[in-house]
Amino acid sequence: MLFLMDIWDSVRGFMAAGGDILWLVAGVLFVMWVLMLERYWYLNWISPKEHKAIITAWEAREDSTSWYAHRIREAWLSQAKQDLTARMLLIKTLVAICPMIGLLGTVTGMISVFDVMAVHGTSNARMMAAGISMATMPTMAGMVAALSGVFFSTRLDAKMKISLEKLKDSLPHH
């Protein structure tokens, strides 16, 4: 329990040193990861069942060669693709926004530094240090959040494409 309290104190200190923008980065990161975990869950547990149902329905059809059968196949594949890629655009947008929010933290931190310089002069390094940490920490956090999001969303995207290709291969048409 004491270990958890030490971790919480460290996180709280980090967030306080980084300023209010760091909380915004944390919120965006949380939403991004919730959405990515939901997509991983869907890809690994829900979509295989749905794809199996599509394959079973396709194999149960007597006609798989007519123009109508091809349109039905295309519609099922399109629906499967739409279900697989749901919320991926939002995830990619959140990944792209993370560095921008970090840069917003840089701007607000530098404004704080300039404010200290205007009020107390340039000789007070301790007071300027708080503004400098408010300028650098959100940028670092935004970049780390974006890098983790890029890596995992790219892997997720690749897995989705493979899953869709496997489904296409399972629905033969002649």
Automatic annotation (TrEMBL):
User: Domain MotA/TolQ/ExbB proton channel spans what residues?
Assistant: 61-166
- Single GO biological process annotation from the record: protein import
Q: What is its main location?
A: membrane
Q: Which InterPro entries match?
A: ExbB/TolQ_transport, MotA_ExbB_proton_chnl
Q: Which GO terms describe its cellular component?
A: plasma membrane
* Subcellular location field: Cell membrane; Membrane
Membrane topology annotation: Multi-pass membrane protein
Give a yes or no for keyword Cell membrane in this entry.
Answer: yes
- What are the UniProt keywords, alphabetically? Cell membrane, Membrane, Protein transport, Transmembrane, Transmembrane helix, Transport
- UniProt keyword Transport present: yes
Which PANTHER family does this one have? PROTEIN TOLQ, TONB2 ENERGY TRANSDUCTION SYSTEM INNER MEMBRANE COMPONENT EXBB
What family does the database annotate? Belongs to the exbB/tolQ family.
The protein in question is named Outer membrane transport energization protein ExbB
Q: What is the lineage of its organism?
A: Bacteria, Pseudomonadati, Pseudomonadota, Gammaproteobacteria, Alteromonadales
